[in-house]
Design a protein that fits this description.
The protein contains eleven helices and 13 strands. By secondary structure, it is α/β, with parallel strands linked by helices. It has one domain: Homocysteine-binding-like domain (TIM Barrel). The structure holds zinc ion. Zinc ion binds next to loops.
């Protein structure tokens, strides 16, 4: 754990899903990053290799969309175990291909709030969700992940279900909250939007979530949020949590599930923001949608030259 959150800060990888798109993979509307495991494993592996060469130490495997309730509607429920194992295997193969020592690296199993067709109203009820997350977590642990990344958390009850599913495995946890500016009320307020569509202030959500969390190896993170929102959210998080935290922001805009790559910030802009956060005490920095190997490599270079 100390190695995971030590000084100097640990570098995480960037996006996997938008990198698949950048490399020309056809975008399936239903669980498309999961489809990549079936047909384009070589590309998934090559993305991991690029992040390894860029200097990332923590790598999130491509298991974001591999819970039973995501795979079942697209007819892939029977492939669940194979796909989750494959997401870890592809990372291990990438490590072998680069000749790096696996012991100095961290493979994080992504477990997320992603739902079939990106339609959150299709998420099952909490008892079934708990079973599905437990099932996925069990396969990922068996396949060799070193920690979990719980991703795109926005709703307290859903987050607590995910925590209940993964806590018994005893691995470190990245608790990845996704935030936005309050569109209706106070424009400077950072909020998360609950499953029923209600906005709640990040401070309130954190208070409730961290108050219920018994896990001693938890690393709260702001992820899949725009850089300016991430900046404000980290300020709130650091006020409420006096221990290592992580940040892996988004950059760029989506339209119809497709990333507009021209709107993604430059590697230099990403590195500038990340270095500010590191100076404020953030222990793990990486990127989410839009952020690729060039961004991570730029940040690494800047950290080395400091
Ligand atoms: Zn993202």
């Amino acid at each position: 754990m100390q190695m995971l959150t030590g000084d100097p800060p640990n570098l995480m990888d960037g996006a996997l899903g938008t990198e698949l798109e950048r490399r020309g993979l056809p975008i399936e509307e239903q669980g498309w990053s999961a489809m990549a495991l079936q047909q384009h494993g070589v590309i998934v592996q090559s993305i991991h290799e690029d992040y390894l060469r860029a200097g990332s130490v923590i790598h999130i495997v491509n298991s974001f969309a591999l819970a039973r309730h995501v795979l079942k509607p697209v007819g892939l429920a029977e492939r669940l175990e194979w796909m989750n194992r494959q997401s870890v295997n592809l990372f291990d193969r990438a490590v072998s291909a680069t000749g790096l020592d696996r012991n100095g690296l961290w493979a994080a199993g992504s477990i997320s709030t992603f739902s079939a067709n990106s339609d959150r109203s299709k998420l099952p009820k909490s008892r079934e969700l708990l079973k599905n997350y437990q099932e996925q977590a069990g396969v990922l642990v068996d396949a060799g992940v070193d920690l979990f990344a719980l991703e795109m958390l926005f709703d307290v009850d859903l987050s607590l279900t995910m925590l209940e599913a993964v806590e018994p495995f005893g691995l470190p946890l990245i608790l990845g909250l996704t935030c936005e500016w309050d569109r209706e009320g106070n424009k400077d307020q950072v909020v998360t939007r609950s499953l029923d569509g209600v906005s709640r202030s990040l401070g309130e959500v954190l208070n409730e979530l961290l108050g219920c969390c018994r896990h001693h190896k938890i690393i709260p993170a702001i992820m899949h949020s725009d850089i300016d929102v991430t900046h404000a959210a980290l300020g709130i998080l650091r006020q409420q949590f006096n221990a290592p935290v992580a940040a892996y922001p988004n950059s760029g805009s989506f339209s119809n599930l497709r990333m507009n790559f021209d709107s993604v910030c430059s590697p230099r802009e990403f590195a500038n923001a990340s270095i500010d956060w590191i100076q404020e005490g953030v222990s793990i920095v990486g990127g989410c949608c839009g952020i690729g190997p060039k961004h991570i490599a730029e940040l690494r270079t800047r950290l080395i030259s400091k």
